[in-house]
Each structure stands twice: as structure tokens, then as C-alpha cells.
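Here comes a specimen:
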Amino acid sequence: MTGLQDRLTPEQVEEFGRELDDLRKRIVADLGQADVDYIQNIIKTQRGLEITGRALLFAGFFPPAWLAGVGALSLSKVLDNMEIGHNVMHGQYDWTRDPALSSQRFEWDTVAPSENWRHSHNYIHHTYTNIVDKDRDVGYGILRIDPAQKWHPYYLGNPVYATLLALLFQWGVMLHDLEVDRLVKGERTWSEFADVRRRIVRKASRQIGKDYVLFPLLTGPLAPLTLAGNATANLVRNLWAFSIIFCGHFPADVESFTEEETENETRGQWYLRQILGSANITGGKLFHILSGNLSHQIEHHLFPDIPARRYPQIAGEVRAICEKYGLPYHTGPLRKQLWSVAKKIVKFALPGSGDSTPAPATLERDRNLQAA
């Protein structure tokens, strides 16, 4: 648990916030046709991959065709989830006034209804980022991923829960806004979630019908192979989305916060919390595209409604601003971040892992303060 008030003086925090506001203004002023062309080309590529993948599954009796079809369909689902769905529903292209790019109209190719996701992710997560007991992405209601979460024998299953969440990630996201953990504890009632449940049933039925009934039946005797291909593509998308999202939020140095220390926070303090509570993943251009540029999670948390293609362009400037104010800028390759997350999942499964153990970055801060 970090002490936001100890990072910078109030004057430094506000100057820090103004620099990031100025950066945001420059990005917004520069948005234009290049951004529209980019997302439209990504959408065309995604649709082409889906058509190609489904067409190849009609020749699924030939193993290379089946593998190629699954590969194309997997890439299609990854692009739809990460670079298109996630970013469009953040309102990153609402300024275009194009109905096809409207955050309120877009529906993605997963079982999670877009309306539910916009509430649990756009509002809850991005407003209360890493505030324990406010941001439901901290542990997703099933994991102990932070020392501020009190240990319970239930958490001995942490590695199992994390594995299941990775394999079934779209279903976990679907249930996220239902707050099942609070329903089980009696903190909420089923009647409070009538609309949420209705949207879940409607969307999940449609997705199951499409991937596991309609398209398999269209391939006739190859239906079992097509069903297996669709399931594999969904699995690939689930594992990829889980990996990118967890690596951006839960590596070792990422910090959490209390409701008390974030009460009445200013714009500058909100920016500071995003920096301390996020991590980037290094990689090449294709890697960033397939991650929906959430490999730049720091920039995304700072500017969630700015087209994600802009994040690599401004990452250097954001890092320079952090260095100017002596703030950490957490980043590393995927394998390093994944290993860090895996160790946390195992560590916090065990008793005695420290209900109030400070994060490494917090310990470093405290040592510096004592030395001063």
C-alpha cells in the first residue's frame, strides 16, 4: 500500500498533472484521418481473418487447413477483443461521429455484454484504479493478488482460480459486473442485478449459438471439427487477453491504494495513481497491435479515451515526465511480467504472506525518506 501524499509535494503533483494535461491536449488536437484510417484498416483485417478462418474450416478434414483456419480465426478474435472492441468501447473514436465506431453501439465477439463491460471496466476500474475494495479488477472477486486483501483459507486455491480464469477469461469478464462474490456473501441481492442478468443471458446465448451451433452445422459432417476449431480460437483469445491484462496490472512493483488516501484527489493525484498502479510490456509493433496497445497500460490508464495507436508515440514523453519527477515507470518483456504475476498469485495464496506488506517500490520510497 503506497502513500500518495509522500511521493511529491502538492505543488509538484499539480505541475505534474498540468504537464500530462498539456500532452493530452496536443494529442487530441492532432487526431484526424490517419487515426480513422488505422482503425478501419484493423477492422478490415479482422473481418478478412474471420472470413478466411471460417472458410478454411470447411476443409477441416485436411489438417493443415484446419490449423490455418484456427490460426486465422484466433487472430480475428484477438483483434476484435483487444485492438477494436476494447478501444472503441472506451470512446476512443466517438469524436468521428461514425455509428460503427460509437462506444455506445459497438458489440464485440465475446460473451460479455458491452453495456455491462462499460460499467465494470470504463467506469469502475478506470475511476478507482487499484483502490482496494473499490476497483473490482483487483483480484476479479476470486483472487488474492494484493497484500491488503485479508488472507482466508479459500485463497489456497489461488493458482487454480487463476488458471481457470485464464482459460475461461471471456466468461469471467461476463460475470464480473454480476459481483458474484458479493452475492455469495449476502452483500448484494439477485434482484439488484436483473438487468445485468438479462443482458448476460441474451449475449451468451447469441455467442454460444454462433460458435457452437450455427457455424458447426454449416460445415455438415465436419461439425465436430468446426466446433473444436471455434473453441480453440476462443481459448487462444482468452489466454492472450488474460496475459496482457494481468501483466499490465499486477506485476510485483505495481502499487495499490486505500480509499482514505485517494479521497478528494486532484487531477494530478489521479494521474499519479495511474502511473504507480500500471505497468507496460515491451515488444515490437505487431505485438503492440495484438495487445490492443494495452502493452502501454500506463499510457492507457492516463488517457483511456485517446486512440490506443497513439500510446507508442507518446510513451517516451510520458517516461521522461516520470523521470523528471522521480517517479517509477514500470516496464519489461512479457515473460518477465508473466513470471512476476505468477509469483504473486502463488505468494498471496499462502498464509503469512503479509496482510499489509508494502510493495517493493514503497519500501524503496521509505528507505529514501529515512535516508533524507
Strands lie at 280-282, 331-333. The chain has one domain: 4-347. Residues 4-347 form one domain.
